[in-house]
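<instruction>
Derive structure tokens from the sequence
<entry> Chain with its tokenised backbone below:
===
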Amino acid sequence: MDLTIEGKAYINGSFENCCIGINEGKISSIKKILKSENHINFGKKLILPAGIDIHVHFRDPGHTYKEDFKTGSKASAFGGISCIFDMPNTTPQTNNIRTIIEKKRIAENKCYVDFGVYAAVTNDNIESIVDMSRHCSGFKLFLGNTTNSLNINEKKLSEILKQTALLKKITLFHAENEQCLRRNSAVEFNLKDHFFHRPSECEEISIKHILDSSREKRPNIHICHLSSCEGFELLRRRDNNISIGVTPHHLLFDIENVKSKQTFHKVNPPIRTKFDRETLWYALKNGLIDVLESDHAPHTIEDKETDFDNAPSGMPGVETMYPLFLAEAKKGNISFQRLISLLSEKPAELMNIPKGRIEIGRDADLIVVDIKKVSKIKQDAIHSKCGWTPYEGRSAIFPTHVFVRGEKLIEENEIQVKQGFGKFVGE
């Protein structure tokens, strides 16, 4: 064995004191006692599966002054995320074989963590879905306008889903109906305006279209960043080919509890009411949500420090997601079992990658956590290029060590590998 580590590991739904043997990047043995020349005893610290974030915007290429694969993946690593999947609304859009291959090349040279990339399906490239599928990790459809997106005509959904169902590739949706958004469009001065002008009705209409278009084909569908009670009620009794993601910001913020820096909390879909937020928490804790996803969408401080109507939508979150919710688990607001399912197990299953569990044969993607060591999130400690966080001052538990494919990625608050260590997954 190349490495053995010892501690209180999360295995098959519970914690047990054991040793984990790692060979050639894979977990090769799990026993009470194991030794190797390279043995690390973490004592009473917890050993957990590393997180997988299936929804990030690393702005590379085209807007690398906000973020790029180097800084975004570094932030991921410090937050206990060993694998990310990047959205296609970059410049140029990742919507053909050439731009997919180019984005993968950029990421291979820069990433500290493993990665996948999605292809955008637009009105103009439906005939290329099969060819793109050979190079991408899945498909993303924007049903409503958001940052640098190309909308899809919802009348074409059935045709698209018929193809993606045959390809067995996950199809992710930004579910806001464009006609509804246009109907409600107006000048905005604050978060409440943004909420009223992107009402839950737009999410509800879009989800209905997705459900109606997918019934016969049963493709693997993921509804990104669910934000409303109405949307949840539509999906509560969904078929098992449909999964739901929720973001930290829709769980932790609402239009009543954000008192300052309103432009920094402007996102699409918008921060909604306390009732929407509490509904999402209920669904999260009770197994009715599948994935916790950051929707990491950074903009610079200068971008955000403008009048509300012109401020771009999006906020960073890949570095803080796992630590924030480890602190919530310690408080008893969510179980460790649910959290690990949301951040590790289910994302690995949806993306069909050998990660997400401490199990023989899977990638040795692990984090080590001192559950007693609760800290406050500080803006000047964030590794994202954007240089800010909406979670300043909130309690979090950051990992002390992070392993990716058995290699030590983070130790003593320092990165231990060179950029370009990350590998493409999910093809």
